[in-house]
Write a structure and sequence with these properties.
The complex is a heterodimer of chains A (124) and B (520). Chain A has 124 residues and is of the alpha+beta class. Helix content of chain A is 34%, strand content 28%. Chain A starts with a strand and ends with a strand. Chain B folds into three domains: 75 residues, no CATH class; 94 residues, PAS domain (Beta-Lactamase, 2-Layer Sandwich); 216 residues, Phosphatase 2c, domain 1 (4-Layer Sandwich), CATH 3.60.40.10. In chain B, helix 8 packs across helix 9. The radius of gyration of chain B is 57 Å and the shape is rod-shaped. Classes of the chains: A alpha+beta (124), B alpha+beta (520).
Chain lengths: 124, 520
């Protein structure tokens, strides 16, 4: 599934809800925490895009029998970098969280903007 | 299967009582076996004590006989008299003692001490008793009764010298005696019989009323050699011999088991009833949610010329919470019609209320004459995920039943499928953001259906599967629709739902199909 979100303050919440609603139907009750992790990953990525002044953000969830991938594509400039947030920083942790929660993640350049793709393996 | 509380309670009670009775019985049996064993041990001890007591009877007799062997031939009986005087008299071993000498077949009493013995010289029984004594290696015993008196007579004879000694010991008339106030007998009721049989006639002594014999209940017996015969000792316990707990255990188990069973049975009843109540409540709640949702779905489709309409809603198999999928179709002026298929994220009553708002808001704008894109644009200002927590996708369209022209706008919803006689294709839409994400503008897509074409709109529940990308699901839908030989919208909807929907699908599904027959 794919949705487009306007780059506003509601986008992170909308992205979380989108991922949650999609994975709810896909994951068994025992593995809902995986859905929570992916919702958080997407929320952080979309927050980054909003901070980067994106006008439109696309969120996509792709599933197969081994992995779940979330794609966050925006039309903003800038390139995602992991910042060394200090202990008391309120933000600047987005990609650090993604790095912790995702099994792998990568960034791809688009004609306008870029995509960040985070992957989690499905539980057996 | 519904479990009836009473059945559960009774089952628990039956099992509990059976176990209780069985364990109580087993404990009782162990206790009885222990009692029997302890009684036998004590009885054997008492028998040993009894056999030492017999020595006390035998010893004076054999001593006197030995003395007589030396002194007797001189006709001196004073030794006998002196010796036995110590043993004869009130409170002593014997009531009387006699010294006899054998002359051929005659037995002559040559000395006597103490009371007049019941065995008198010349009696046939006396003679045969003495003759028997001469024939025996040990002393012999006989119960003698004369008038109201009973005695036990002992005799020991020495065939080489021809001397014999008899002694008598009277038996109390009631045959009761606190014989041998010995610790070996302390916990026992007993009856001592002369001879191997425990007959009333052979009773020697007992510590209970002779009329209450033979001893009842748990009994043990042992035999003690007694001269030429035996004593039979029969005992029964006066009190419990084993540990007090062992005696009370069966009762404790019984009472404890019954109480526990009653408690478990009651608890089982309550739990089952509670569960039943919860199940009923759960069912009612789900039923209520589903009724609410169905009430919000159209009861019937409007009659629109040339348009065959069919729709279906299927609830997901995910607990009590229902989804927020919906469809709607209304007739407008001049043969035009408007339709919506939408999906509110999340589940439960909250999702259904957002769905109701979306459904009526969109419908109101469409009835007011707004285009699909304008309708979605206006709605995008009225829904806010930060207020209600839900995201709404919707496909909104307006069609003309006279020309087959359809204009649609898409707020983050799966694109509809066009099912033509010669093939299927998804309508290419320009999806805008879902409702709830903020004000947005939406693009329109306009296309014209050829006669006999069906426009199939659906929610993602139809194409989602656990381990597949949604693209794969969309492709399967296209293949399914293309392979179907259907002649009505209803058949297509039914075919698509029954083919694609799995029983364990968690998400709910709304499907709306509109088949345009062509202008007439």
């Amino acid at each position: 599934m794919i949705i487009q979100l306007p780059g506003n303050v509601r986008a992170p919440a909308a992205a979380r809800e989108f991922v949650r609603a999609n994975l709810e139907a896909i994951l068994t009750t025992a593995h809902q925490s995986l859905g929570d992790d992916l919702a958080l990953i997407v929320s952080e990525l979309v927050t980054n895009s909003v901070h980067a002044q994106a006008r439109t953000i696309e969120v996509e969830v792709r599933v197969d029998d081994e992995c779940i991938e979330v794609h966050v594509t925006d039309d903003a400039g800038g390139w995602p970098t992991v910042q060394a947030a200090t202990v008391d920083s309120l933000d600047g942790r987005g990609l650090e969280i993604v790095d912790q929660l995702a099994d792998s993640w990568r960034t791809e350049s688009r004609a306008r903007g870029k995509s960040v793709i985070a992957t989690r393996r499905r539980p057996e | 299967m519904p479990r009836r509380p009473l059945v559960v309670a009774v089952s628990i009670a039956v099992v509990g009582l059976v176990l209780t009775v069985a364990s109580s019985w087993a404990a009782g049996r162990v206790d009885r076996n222990t009692e029997q064993r302890l009684l036998q041990v004590q009885t054997d001890q008492a028998g040993t004590v009894l056999s030492t007591a017999i020595l006390l009877v035998q010893q004076p007799l054999s001593t006197a006989l030995s003395v007589e062997k030396v002194a007797g031939p001189m006709g001196d009986t004073s030794a006998f008299t002196n010796l036995m005087s110590a043993q004869v008299g009130a409170g002593k071993m014997f009531e009387s003692a006699s010294l006899w000498q054998r002359h051929g077949h005659r037995m002559k009493r040559i000395a006597q001490v103490g009371d007049a013995p019941l065995m008198r010289p010349g009696d046939k029984t006396t003679v045969s008793f003495l003759q028997h004594a001469f024939g025996s290696k040990t002393f012999i015993v006989r119960a003698v009764t004369h008038d109201a008196h009973s005695s036990i007579a002992y005799a020991q004879a020495d065939a080489s010298t021809g001397f014999a000694i008899t002694a008598e010991r009277s038996v109390p008339a009631n045959r009761r005696a606190r014989v041998d106030n010995n610790s070996a007998f302390a916990q026992l009721n007993y009856a001592i019989y002369i001879g191997p049989k425990a007959d009333a006639a052979a009773l020697s002594t007992t510590d209970v009323a002779p009329s209450s014999l033979p001893l009842a209940g748990t009994t043990a017996r042992t035999k003690v050699p007694f001269g030429d015969t035996v004593l039979t000792l029969v005992t029964s316990p006066r009190e419990h011999l084993g540990a007090p707990l062992s005696q009370r255990l069966p009762l404790i188990l019984l009472i404890g088991g019954v109480l526990f069973t009653a408690f478990a049975s009651g608890a089982g009843y309550q739990l089952t009833r509670g569960r039943q109540a919860v199940e009923t409540l759960y069912g009612e709640q789900r039923d209520l949610s589903e009724r609410l949702q169905r009430a919000l779905l159209p009861q019937s489709h409007p009659a629109i010329p040339n348009l065959d309409i069919a729709a279906e809603y299927v609830a997901g198999a995910q607990g009590v919470d229902i989804g927020g999928d919906w469809y709607s179709i209304v007739g407008l002026d001049d043969g035009r019609y408007a339709f919506v298929v939408g999906d509110v994220s999340g589940r439960g009553i909250d999702a259904v209320t957002v769905m109701a708002r979306a459904r009526f808001t969109i419908r109101a704008y469409l009835l007011d004459g707004h285009s699909p894109a304008a309708t979605l644009g206006k709605c995008s200002r009225q829904f806010d995920i930060s207020e209600d927590g839900h995201l709404t996708t919707a496909l909104v369209g307006v069609g003309d039943s006279r020309t087959g022209e359809v204009t649609i706008a898409n707020a983050g919803h799966p694109a509809p499928l066009l099912v033509r006689r010669d093939g299927v294709e998804f309508v290419t839409t320009t999806p805008g953001p879902p409702l709830g994400t903020g004000a947005a503008t939406y693009a329109s897509t306009t296309f014209t259906m050829t006669p006999g074409t069906t426009l199939l709109c659906f929610t993602d529940g139809l194409v989602e599967r656990r381990t597949e990308d949604i693209d794969t699901g969309m492709q399967r839908l296209a293949t399914t629709a293309a392979g179907a030989t259907v002649s009505s919208a209803d058949e297509l909807v039914h075919h698509a739902v029954s083919t694609l929907r799995t029983d364990d699908a968690r998400d709910d599904v709304a499907v709306l199909a509109m088949r345009w027959a062509g202008a007439r």
